[in-house]
Amino acid sequence: MVTIRDVAGESGFSVTTVSMVLNDGPAAQRISARTRTHVWKVARKLGYRPNLFARSLRSRRSQTVGVVVFDITDSYCTQILRGIENHLRPSGYFPIVTDLQDDRSQFHRCLDMLLGRRVEGIIAMANPIYLDAQLLSEFADRNVPAVVIGSELEDSSLSSVVVDNEAGTRLAIQHLYELGHSRIAFIKGPKILVDSTQRWRGLETFARDVGLRLDPKLVLEIKGRNSTYAEGCQLTEELLKRSPDFTALVAFDDVTACAAIRALTQAGRQVPKDCSVVGFDDVPSSAFYNPPLTTVHQLLEMQGSLAAEMIEELIKAATEKRPVPPRHRKVLPKLIVRDSTCPAPL
Asked: I need a surface site. Which of 31, 62, 209, 305 has the fewest CB within 10 A?
């Protein structure tokens, strides 16, 4: 490994001068531009790479942010993670990602691991893992700056980023209503998820505002902890048995919506000619499904970027030993209209 001493010996300058240049701190500005240019030229020629571990020991700063994801294979997590990384990279912070693998019992172990590596802050994705008040309080108890994505925490000391779930499902049902649909089926999310209640509230509120009746026979709920393709198919088949005359279906998320399209197709129903389908999330594959899915886009990368921006502010406040009030951001989703919806059949 090439060291600062190697660069000093090759460049002809002292170790102190080379160290100030390569660390690029305020002291480096006292050194002439010509000297700085020569030192950097030699460093690049030798293949010098800064020893970040040694630097963190000296500065007592790790320049790392812990990121807790509930399932790294879930596209919800991967899109948020990309937003986090894209925002942190230019500022020099390195994300350390730990995967709960959809297992709530892993939370404490993962948190201990991150804190043991001296992360300066933590970003946690709250859905669909159910992070209750007791778990969330761990961040405050351990005195670590934290931002939670996916859980409304306006009465908490923790900062948060969420999508406006109610606004999203209002957009979905309004779209179908304006297309002339009145017999609409619904697959609700699991009770364990906060999102499920919020998304259902948006549907109910719009229906009440326009006088649209929601038939209880056409409302089913995901029973597991999270949506699956298999259960989406089963629930759609159950809806068809209960009352096959519905002309549209609103699914809790894109996984369920795509499963519903398959079940409808297998039952001889054409989508969207016989039945329109709307999802929620806008995962990358939804645009390439057959037919391409109309869905609510919740700007997941933006949520990740906002959380990263907030954690940077919290870390800065902590290093400066100044209090900062928690911030809460709610992202307004957009409806993406594709080929899985059309006017209601006559």
From this structure: 209
**Token output for 151:** 């859980």
CA dist., res. 261 & res. 274, Å (int): 11
pLDDT digits (tens, 9 = 90+) for 172-221: 999 999 999 999 999 999 988 888 999 999 999 999 999 999 999 999 99
Confidence of residue 281 (pLDDT cuts 50, 70, 90): very high
What is the DSSP-derived secondary structure letter of residue 1?
-
Burial bucket for residue 104 (CB in 10 Å: 0-12, 13-18, 19+): middle
- DSSP, residue by residue, 16-35: HHHHHHHHT-GGGGGS-HHH
Return d(Cα 161, Cα 299) in angstroms, integer. 11
Task: Report, as an integer, the average pLDDT of 285-305.
Answer: 95
Give whole-number Cα distances, 210 to 54, 178, 198, 229, 338, in Å: 64, 11, 19, 32, 24
> What CA dihedral angle connects 47, 85, 69 and 251, to 10 degrees?
-140
**Measured distance CA(268)–CA(245) in Å, rounded:** 13
Q: pLDDT tens digit string along 241-250?
A: 999 999 999 9
CA 206 to chain CA centroid, Å, is 27
Could you tell me the pTM of the whole model? 0.79
Tell me, what's the pLDDT at 52? 59
Q: Three-class SS of residue 155?
A: coil
DSSP string, 93-106: -EEEEEE-TT-GGG
CA distance 140 to 117: 18
